């Protein structure tokens, strides 16, 4: 979008928050860059330069605005609905792969050379993978500076910097303030919980929290997830340890309270929480497309801004999808809770309600199938899945190619369209995944006068592309969808 100068100027002059994260405005005369909704008087159009990323602005020598704090804007929705190389690379960078494995590790995961990745990221985002990772480190550093009392040296290494000097130089360059000055300007939090980080996760309005938090609470696996005091809480398996997060909806943000075993996991934890709640979606674009259908329009108008509840762990969700085949939500939770109690990794929860991490594929690959209270065919499905995941023959991750991964899933025994599509929808993040065989979707379609057979409904849903996953949320809202009794 940043190449459409006229449209960008209009967005800046109207202070349109819907475009925060889509592009950034660098101002030649002041040397700062802002989000489109910055509250200051808009600069003259001839002084504006538009960039596709904060890293691109920083590469060009601009520093972050102290008023609008562009580093805290929602992420670009481009990386959610696209499946090309750049989008997959951005999802991996957000998950901290460059900091942990370097650019060669990023390239290996994507199956391209480092030169190809750098060239494509530079062409589209104006910054390479190292610059993008550096911008993320700067954001992490600011969060830790403003929300903790940790010594600056510890913050520097927790944020991923190789030295305190590099940390100091980067913070001054990006924010035009020293780390100490940033901390002095930060608002004091009188309700701070010792050992926890309290953050605000921004989103694009509107956001309907009912389907998000209602679904997560209804499907919560005891020991791993819970709903307590108006917040969804769960354990997190992270690269350097484990964590516990509490997420609660607020009118203009999601309140996030994180307890981490290793502070280096902060950016990864934030990225996964945002992904879980689909916070980088563009609800206006989604709802406009679905509202064009006269059948869906009343559903959208009644509760706009529905998101797709996703997951913090793709492998975990794949296991839970198999456990949920042809059974009720309550039964699926029971099966998952048994696996957690028998094979999950115990954790300490400061608030006492959570007990385990969900079992890893490696742990589940060693289980005795005869101990599973499942039909024999589903035991085979589950054990095949976890063995393939543990051995690396099947990889599910943020960088996965959606269509190729779906095909690989369908090749596994016991995997039908519903299981593959629900994994694509909830775990892989495909915004166009569709569930025409789901009982709840078919019931809603029948009640609304839409075709209810899978083939006819799929044909009818072509007009909803590329947002069919969101159409599923609106259809599910008309039905409890407690069980999937159709072919898996």
Automatic annotation (TrEMBL):
Kindly give the PROSITE patterns that the UniProt entry links to this protein.
HTH_ARAC_FAMILY_1, HTH_ARAC_FAMILY_2
Q: Which UniProt keywords apply?
A: Activator, DNA damage, DNA repair, DNA-binding, Metal-binding, Methyltransferase, Transcription, Transcription regulation, Transferase, Zinc
CDD domains per record: ENDO3c
User: What is the main EC category here?
Assistant: hydrolase
Catalytic reactions of this protein:
Hydrolysis of alkylated DNA, releasing 3-methyladenine, 3-methylguanine, 7-methylguanine and 7-methyladenine
Question: What InterPro entries does the database record attribute to this sequence?
Answer: Ada-like_dom_sf, Ada_DNA_repair_Zn-bd, AlkA_N, AlkA_N_sf, Alkylbase_DNA_Glycosylase/TA, DNA_glycosylase, HhH-GPD_domain, HhH_base_excis_C
Q: Which residues form the signal peptide?
A: none
Q: What is its EC number?
A: 3.2.2.21
Does Methyltransferase appear among the keywords?
A: yes
Cofactor(s), names only, from the UniProt record: Zn(2+)
Pfam families recorded:
Ada_Zn_binding, AlkA_N, HhH-GPD, HTH_18
HTH araC/xylS-type domain mapped to chain residues: 87-185
Under PANTHER family, the record lists: DNA-3-METHYLADENINE GLYCOSYLASE (PTHR43003), DNA-3-METHYLADENINE GLYCOSYLASE 2 (PTHR43003:SF13)
- This protein is called DNA-3-methyladenine glycosylase II
């Amino acid at each position: 979008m940043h190449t459409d100068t006229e449209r960008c100027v209009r967005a800046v002059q109207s202070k349109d928050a819907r475009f925060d994260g889509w592009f950034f405005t660098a101002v030649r005369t002041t040397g700062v860059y802002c989000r489109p909704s910055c509250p200051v008087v808009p600069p003259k159009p001839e002084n504006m330069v538009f960039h596709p990323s904060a890293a691109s602005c920083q590469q060009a020598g601009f520093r972050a605005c102290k008023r609008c704090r562009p580093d805290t804007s929602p992420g670009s929705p481009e990386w959610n609905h696209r499946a090309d190389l750049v989008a997959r690379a951005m999802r991996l960078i957000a998950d901290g792969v460059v900091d942990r494995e370097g650019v060669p590790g990023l390239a290996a995961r994507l199956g391209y050379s480092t030169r190809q990745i750098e060239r494509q990221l530079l062409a589209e985002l104006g910054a390479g993978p190292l610059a993008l990772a550096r911008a993320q480190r700067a954001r992490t550093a600011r969060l830790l500076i403003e929300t903790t009392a940790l010594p600056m040296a510890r913050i520097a290494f927790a944020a991923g910097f190789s030295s305190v000097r590099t940390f100091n130089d980067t913070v001054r360059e990006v924010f035009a303030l020293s780390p100490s000055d940033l901390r002095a300007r930060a608002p004091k939090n009188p309700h701070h919980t010792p050992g926890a980080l309290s953050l605000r996760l921004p989103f694009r309005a509107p956001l309907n929290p009912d389907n998000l938090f209602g679904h997560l609470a209804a499907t919560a696996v005891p020991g791993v997830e819970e709903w307590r005091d108006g917040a969804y809480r769960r354990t997190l398996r992270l690269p350097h340890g484990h964590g516990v997060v509490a997420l609660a909806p607020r009118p203009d943000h999601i309140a996030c309270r994180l307890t981490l075993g290793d502070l280096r996991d902060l950016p990864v934890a934030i990225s996964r929480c945002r992904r879980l709640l689909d916070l980088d979606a563009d609800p206006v674009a989604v709802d406009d497309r679905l509202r064009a259908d006269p059948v869906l329009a009343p559903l959208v108008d009644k509760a706009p801004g529905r998101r797709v509840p996703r997951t913090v762990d793709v492998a975990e969700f794949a296991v839970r999808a198999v456990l949920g085949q042809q059974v009720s939500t309550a039964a699926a939770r029971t099966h998952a809770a048994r696996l957690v109690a028998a094979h999950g990794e115990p954790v300490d929860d400061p608030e006492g309600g959570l007990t385990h991490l969900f079992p890893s594929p490696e742990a589940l690959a060693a289980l005795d199938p005869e101990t599973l209270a499942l039909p024999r065919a589903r035991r085979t499905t589950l054990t095949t899945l976890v063995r393939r995941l543990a051995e690396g023959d099947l990889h599910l991750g943020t960088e996965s190619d959606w269509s190729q991964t779906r095909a690989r899933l369908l090749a596994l025994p016991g995997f039908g369209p519903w299981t593959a599509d629900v994994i694509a929808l909830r775990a892989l993040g495909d915004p166009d995944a569709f569930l025409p065989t789901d009982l709840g979707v078919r019931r809603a379609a029948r009640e609304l006068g839409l075709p209810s057979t899978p083939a006819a409904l799929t044909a009818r849903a072509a007009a909803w592309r590329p947002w069919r996953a969101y159409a599923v949320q609106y259809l599910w809202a008309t039905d409890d969808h407690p069980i999937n009794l159709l072919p898996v």
